[in-house]
Amino acid sequence: MPGWSQTWSTLAQHGVAGSVAFTLAPLANNSNYNVRGAPCQEPAGLEANRLPIVMDPRDTDNAIAWLQSKDANFKPPTYLELFNEPDLSYADATPVTLPKESAKNLTKLIAAKGSTHLISPVPAFTGSDWLKEFKGNCSGCLDSQVEYIGAHVYDIDPAGSISQIQNLHNQWPDKKIWVTELSPATNPGPCQFDSDGMIQYMTTLVNSIKELGYVEKIFWNTGTYVRDATPCSRPIQDHATGMTAHKDDRVILEMILTYATRA
Description:
The protein has helices at residues 4-13, 44-48, 60-67, 99-111, 130-137, 141-145, 158-171, 195-212, 247-260; strands spanning 19-20, 50-51, 53-54, 79-82, 117-119, 146-154, 176-183, 215-220. It is an alpha/beta fold. Strands 3-4-5-6-7-8 form a six-stranded parallel beta sheet. A two-stranded parallel sheet has the order 1-2. Helix 3 (60-67) links the parallel strand 3 and strand 4. The longest helix is centred in the last third of the chain and has 18 residues, at 195-212.
């Protein structure tokens, strides 16, 4: 079936070595990633190089069972992100989870991580004190067990995005940062770039991020549905038709993702 296989092929041609999806389970097991109403036929390269996410407390027990699997063929994930935007309910579909609750919920999972490298919970609001409060309630978690600080960075001004990242680094100077969502906007909102403007924005921002020296990976957020697409936020996958990246997206992909997600 066309769709995700074509998309992954497009990405791989640009040197992309990884991706993020909003799921702990494989894409084929999550109906949100269906193509033409059927489970996606997920290419091996996509799943093998996908960053799984423990989306919220409802995923924690499954993540622990996964990490502790006794299956002889089990290969633990290299990386695992903990909690996606716990400080924000997305369309009332995800729970708001306070730092103290999160620490209590994740303690057993963090202890079970084995060889898997953990990315911190990623608040929706980069400048908040959520992670500081989480650390205060999870002894040792952000000192040694959780190796990377995750960030979602949105600002129509590249300088504003860099400022967010710098401020986060100042809070966690001993940690590498993974920017697991990056875009000027996920909705049309104030972002009115045309394709050339979008490319210039990303060129400026990605080059500035490279110069920081402490951002290990960045991922371009292309999560908007086709019907809502703008140059600021155009998806790389049309679930209805199976079509893949727009030609302007491919310029952006070539420029950003070869740096962003290459191991």
